């Protein structure tokens, strides 16, 4: 079947790569990138990670993550689900309990942000395009995660001057639809 026989069209690797680089450099949502680049959202894939309170990566697989009977904390870019808990949208009408939840949620979730900051500072090659075959990049990133965990286990400190301070990758602020279109607020509540 060729591109004319379906509603789908093949995209050149260069176009996919350019869209990915633009996404990494601007930190917009995948929905925004797909609209801007005229590509289906399903064209893009990204990995999620699970980190513990010691900034060690527990799961770096691009699939279901976590442990049975546990929850994962996500940021405001994600929808609240039965396994992923996100902060309340602060529209100025949060209860004291909801404000406290957001405070504790943020204080807890910051550990993953610290882990990624240390991770990218420790392995500076990850801040530039990795010039290897695409199919082996997951193995390379996995190896870096394992080495990161070993360094954290032995208390390896990063020089202050090497710590990442670039805020280029900040995500788009609260996406309203993620807060209003779900049935799992009872878990968070």
UniProtKB/TrEMBL annotation:
Gene Ontology molecular-function annotations: hydrolase activity; metal ion binding; nuclease activity
Q: Which cofactor does it need?
A: a divalent metal cation
The reply on keyword Hydrolase is yes
Highest taxon, organism lineage: Eukaryota
User: What is the official name of this protein in its record?
Assistant: 14048_t:CDS:1
Q: Which Pfam families match?
A: DDE_Tnp_4
Alphabetical list of InterPro entries matching this protein:
HARBI1-like (IPR045249), HARBI1_dom (IPR027806)
Subcellular location(s): the record lists: Nucleus
| Annotated GO CC locations | nucleus
Q: What is its main location?
A: nucleus
Q: Where is the DDE Tnp4 domain?
A: 66-149
Keywords (A to Z) from UniProt: Hydrolase, Metal-binding, Nuclease, Nucleus
> Belongs to which family?
Belongs to the HARBI1 family.
């Amino acid at each position: 079947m060729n591109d004319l026989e379906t509603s789908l069209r093949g995209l050149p690797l260069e176009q996919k790569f350019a869209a990915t680089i633009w996404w990494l450099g601007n930190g917009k949502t995948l929905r925004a990138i797909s609209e801007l680049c005229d590509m289906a959202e399903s064209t893009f894939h990204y990995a999620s990670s699970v980190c513990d309170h010691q900034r060690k990566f527990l799961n770096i697989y691009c699939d279901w993550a976590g442990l049975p009977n546990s929850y994962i904390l996500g940021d405001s870019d994600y929808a609240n689900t039965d396994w992923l808990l996100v902060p309340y949208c602060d529209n100025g009408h949060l209860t004291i309990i909801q404000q406290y939840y957001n405070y504790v949620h943020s204080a807890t979730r910051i550990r993953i942000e610290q882990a990624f900051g240390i991770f990218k500072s420790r392995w500076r090659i990850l801040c530039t395009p990795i010039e290897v075959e695409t199919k082996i990049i997951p193995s390379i990133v996995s190896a870096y995660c394992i080495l990161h965990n070993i360094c954290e286990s032995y208390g390896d400190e990063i020089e202050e001057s090497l710590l990442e301070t670039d805020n280029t990758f900040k995500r788009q602020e609260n996406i309203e639809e993620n807060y209003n279109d779900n049935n799992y607020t009872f878990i968070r509540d």
